[in-house]
Design brief:
alpha/beta; 5 helices; 5 strands; Rossmann fold; about 35% helix; 5-stranded mixed sheet
């Protein structure tokens, strides 16, 4: 299904635009973590919510999205737009048992227990880091030299 996996990692600025708070783990660390995964070909900064702009930049032929987006007005339209340029949309099953809110709160507790201090100290604790923020956008490109 994939000769070269491109993973878009949402920039801190894009997260702030959508969530009105900075991510607990900064972009530079998130992109490094993603790039260290053996099956990731390239990790790129996702600095726009415009998925067709991402396609123009990277010319992928498959995109992956959580199934919680399937059937939404946005992704129904994107499926049509992508089909017109030969891109297939694959939906991964939604991970209902994985709570990014719990992950965020756990990281905050670890930081507080160890007396770490960061710019994120003033960020609100409530809210889910990942539900409507596209933290990782998986794209594939076949036949990459």
């Amino acid at each position: 299904m994939c000769d070269h996996l491109i993973v878009g990692v949402t920039t801190d600025e894009l997260v702030e635009q959508r969530k009105q708070k900075r991510p607990i783990i900064p972009f530079s660390e998130r992109v490094e973590i993603v790039q260290a995964i053996s099956f990731v070909g390239t990790a790129v900064a996702e600095d726009s919510f415009d998925k067709m702009l991402a396609w123009k930049r990277y010319r992928f032929d498959v995109t992956f999205k959580g199934s919680d987006w399937q059937g939404t007005d946005l992704w129904i339209q994107l499926e049509k737009d992508f089909a017109a340029v030969g891109v297939r949309v694959v939906y991964f099953p939604y991970t209902q048992d994985t709570s990014s809110t719990i992950i965020r709160e756990t990281l905050r507790m670890i930081r507080d227990d160890n007396d770490y201090s960061t710019e994120a100290d003033d960020a609100p604790a409530e809210g889910n880091v990942g539900d409507d923020e596209q933290t990782f956008e998986l794209l594939t490109k076949k036949n990459v030299a």
